[in-house]
Design goal:
By secondary structure, the chain is of the alpha/beta class. It contains six helices and 13 strands. It has an eight-stranded mixed beta sheet. The chain has a three-stranded mixed beta sheet with strand order 8-7-10, with helices on one face. A two-stranded antiparallel ribbon has the order 4-5. Strand 1, helix 4 and strand 2 form a beta-alpha-beta unit. It is globular and about 50 Å long. The termini are far apart.
């Protein structure tokens, strides 16, 4: 059992390294263009269209960009909250402006001020991740923030945003890793347990 766990940890570490270098290899322009394609697919999803509240992440280091998604959500009259790391926990706070409501936070990621806590359970949560597979299993960054948050908020609808180069046939996963219901890339939408 111990060896299997060590192997899985090593596999995840190598996968994180590989995806990090793939992200770095893309120009800002390529990342932006692919992010716009991901955004279009996301906005077409019924989960997005039904949601009144969007829990989004603030992208960094060539993740799928979320600012255009957030702007579209505001324009559609949705409320938007983004995460802040507080010790080992992650909480979401509402924002209505990038300039007014965000500050430099953990890991160099912009975070919201702790002014308007978002505690609704009927929201769509956008998940970042390092890599995903065809069954929507996810390898995160290793902090476990999203797994812990989703354990406490199982009612949230989850959609992960990723680039096609982050999708693998299969990724190393633990039983406690929480899968998003869907993974949206610039080319397709994957659903847990199927490939469409």
């Amino acid at each position: 059992m111990q060896k299997k766990e060590t192997d899985r940890k090593q596999e995840k570490k190598e996968l994180r390294r590989e995806i990090r270098s793939l992200r770095k290899a893309h120009t800002d322009e390529e990342i932006h263009a692919m992010s716009l394609s991901v955004k279009e697919r996301l906005l077409a999803l019924p989960e997005y269209q039904k949601a009144r509240i969007l829990y989004a992440y603030m992208d960094c280091k060539h993740e799928v960009e979320t600012r255009d998604v957030i702007r579209a959500a505001w324009a559609a009259g949705k409320r938007v909250a983004v995460p802040k790391v507080l010790g080992q926990e992650m909480r979401f706070f509402y924002i209505t402006s990038f300039e007014e409501d965000l500050e430099e936070g953990s890991f160099g990621i912009q975070e919201p001020r702790e002014e308007h806590p978002a505690e609704e359970e009927d929201a769509l949560l956008l998940m970042p991740g390092v890599a995903f597979d065809l069954k929507c299993r996810r390898v995160g960054y290793g902090g476990g923030f999203y797994d812990r948050f989703l354990e406490k908020h199982p009612g949230l609808v989850t959609v992960a945003l990723a680039f096609e180069f982050q999708v693998k046939e299969e990724v190393p996963f633990e039983e406690f890793d929480i899968r998003p219901a869907k993974v949206v890339t610039e080319k397709r939408c994957l659903m847990a347990g199927s490939d469409t």
